[in-house]
Write a structure and sequence with these properties.
The complex is a heterodimer of chains A (304) and B (302). Chain A is of the alpha+beta class and 304 residues long. Chain A is built from 9 helices and 10 strands. By secondary structure, chain B is mainly α. The chains are: A alpha+beta (304), B mainly alpha (302).
């Protein structure tokens, strides 16, 4: 069982109650952009509309970002890829549809390929449930806590809407609901987990792009999938947030991406702000000392 | 801003979320800083037998804390739940630590000011003065930690400098407020604190802007630049007025008003720079890419 690395929460009770840590492995190489995850999440959690429908013109993405009312967000990127396109049936550097198509062709089906020189990247984004969760660490009321499953959840009856978690999250996930005053984000379907079910998005995903399970098992599976893709010539495939040595201690929800993270709107090297907190408190100590010294000098000059 | 070819993004969209804090929050930085530094000024005055200055500084401190409370509570999404701030004691949350600080220093300063004004409960009043005065520097500096303990690049990367920026402004504010309320014959320490604080503020802001490098461009953005320039102008003019004309009433009043305005504008500038920084994916991506490249370089050569 992998315990969250560097969980800095006081009296959170995690150690006593801990169950095997669970999370998501999102394999974007097989995402078809159907948005069943977005719908299932909203349906199960009764998440309100994120405002009137806007057609953004950014490919098929009309939600554009995770927010208080969007807990799963599918990103779409249309890229020009020099040299890619229809060709031999073997795996080639391509977008997710081509990989699914290769598998279908191998099974004897006749499948149209992506146009020459173009590929789609599609990815379902979600709260990362970081091992070192900045939102949790800065929360002044203790509303954000670590569940027995290792996930990060907001207690809606405690949150007073101070909003400190909002600029603290290095991924820009959590946000305040304007007409409510409290913050909301993905709960990894905490209620479903407690009843032994998988989260709604994982249940709905038709291609198993969203995989749910124990984190150890998911990481092993991801390593195998990465090796398969690399062996098949998809050199740009990479795992994102799988590694516990990264700035957030690895995520409970990690990804297989087909390009750099920033192309998907993700930070390339996120670090929990709490890593620098000792240095910040020290700087405050120095500043406080300087203030005291300044006062001493001011009084040393006498009454006039 | 940065040309798109230098970094990649998702349709140029922000990676971070904009803070939900309104201008009430930087106004609290101003009021709270004034309150904390004034409490320490009052304690120093009391210890040196300067009782008129002590009374003035206590009044300023109480006013600062009394203004801070509604500013903070009103900014909450659920103001009625403000007391939830004290559910836990949590050193990883500067906002939680600040809530404890304010809960102790605020009532102490207000109580001390009342006891002083009304001439009652002298021993409790003096004890409260000591408590507020000792906590004063913490109250004046923890807000720098609070702002920097976020993912916003222009705030986080200024973390080494922000506490001193806030402390300097607090000193200038406290000196200015006391100067307004104290007869000139007793106001020497307040004048010196005001001028010293202003000089330290101008210097520490300059150092912070330089150390930020490219991230400092957030301070050049239109809504921020106005407040940053106003802050610099008011601080400079205020310091000169208090320094050279502070012994006369007109000079003291004008100088103090300028210093107070300058301190408030500086905090508004810092606050608004954060919004510009959070909205710019380049501010997030470029430094992180540089960090990764440096790490890869070390790995290859190491």
């Amino acid at each position: 069982m992998s315990a969250p690395a560097q969980v800095v929460t006081f009296g959170a009770g995690y150690e006593k109650a801990a169950r095997p840590r669970v999370g998501f492995f999102t394999d974007t190489s097989v995402c078809i952009g159907c948005k069943a995850c977005e719908v299932a999440c909203k349906e199960w959690n009764l998440v309100p509309e994120a405002g009137p429908i806007e057609f953004t013109g950014n490919s098929y993405d009309n939600t554009m970002t995770l927010a208080a009312d969007t807990w799963r967000h599918v990103a779409f990127v249309e890229q020009e890829v020099p040299g890619a396109g229809a060709g031999a049936g073997a795996l080639q550097p391509a977008g997710s549809l081509d990989l699914a198509a290769a598998a279908a062709e191998a099974a004897g089906l006749d499948v149209p390929r992506a146009a020459d020189g173009m590929r789609w990247l599609m990815s379902s984004d979600v709260c990362k449930h970081c091992s070192s969760a900045a939102c949790l660490e800065v929360c002044p009321t203790g509303a954000l806590f670590r569940t027995e499953f290792g996930t990060v959840v907001v207690q809606a009856d405690v949150c007073n809407g101070c909003g400190y978690c909002v600029p603290a999250c290095p991924f820009g996930v959590i946000d305040r609901r304007e007409d409510d005053g409290r913050v909301f984000k993905c709960t990894l379907c905490y209620d479903r987990l407690r009843d032994g079910m998988e989260p709604a998005c994982a249940r709905a995903c038709p291609t198993d792009s969203i995989q749910f399970g124990e984190l150890d098992e998911l990481r092993a599976r991801a390593d195998r999938r990465l090796a398969t893709l690399h062996d098949g010539g998809v050199a740009e495939a990479r795992l994102y947030l799988r590694d516990e040595a990264d700035g957030i201690g690895g995520a409970g929800a990690f990804f297989l991406l087909l390009d750099e993270p920033e192309v998907y709107g993700l930070p390339p090297d996120p670090v929990s702000t709490t890593r620098d907190l000792p240095k910040l408190w020290r700087a405050a100590g120095v500043a406080a000392g300087a203030l005291v010294a300044g006062l001493a000098v001011a009084f040393a000059g006498g009454r006039r | 801003m940065v040309p798109p070819a230098e970094f990649r993004s998702y349709y140029g969209r922000p990676i971070l979320k904009a803070p939900v804090w309104t201008d009430e929050v930087p106004l609290y930085y101003f009021a709270g800083g004034l309150a904390g530094a004034s409490a320490s000024l009052a304690l120093g005055a009391r210890l040196t037998g300067n009782h008129r200055l002590a009374s003035a500084a206590l009044t300023a401190s109480a006013a600062g804390f009394l203004t801070s409370f509604p500013l903070l509570v009103d900014d909450l999404g659920r103001p009625a739940r403000f007391h939830h701030m004290l559910r836990v004691f949590k050193p990883t949350s500067p906002m939680n630590m600040g809530s404890w600080l304010l809960s102790a220093a605020g009532p102490a300063a207000v109580g001390a000011a009342l006891a002083d004004r009304l001439g009652v409960l002298p021993r409790i009043g003096r004890a409260a003065e000591v408590l507020a005065g000792v906590l004063g520097p913490a109250v004046a500096t923890y807000t720098g930690v609070l702002v920097a303990d976020t993912a916003v690049p222009v705030w986080h990367e200024a973390g080494g400098d922000l506490p001193l920026v806030f402390a300097s402004g607090a000193a200038a504010s406290a000196g200015a407020a006391a100067l307004l309320l104290t007869p000139a014959a007793d106001a020497g320490p307040a004048r010196r604190l005001a001028v010293g604080g202003a000089v330290a503020d101008l210097a520490s802001v300059e150092v912070m802007r330089r150390r930020l490098g490219e991230l400092g461009e957030a301070y050049e953005a239109r809504p921020v630049r106005r407040f940053a320039n106003l802050a610099r102008t008011c601080m400079t003019a205020g310091a000169l007025a208090v320094g050279f004309a502070g012994r006369r009433r007109a000079g003291a009043v004008a100088g103090a008003a300028l210093l107070l305005a300058g301190a408030a504008c500086q905090r508004l500038a810092v606050h608004k720079a954060g919004f510009v920084s959070a909205a710019d994916p380049a501010q997030v991506v470029k430094p992180q890419r540089d960090r990764l490249a440096a790490r890869d370089g070390d790995a290859r050569s190491g």
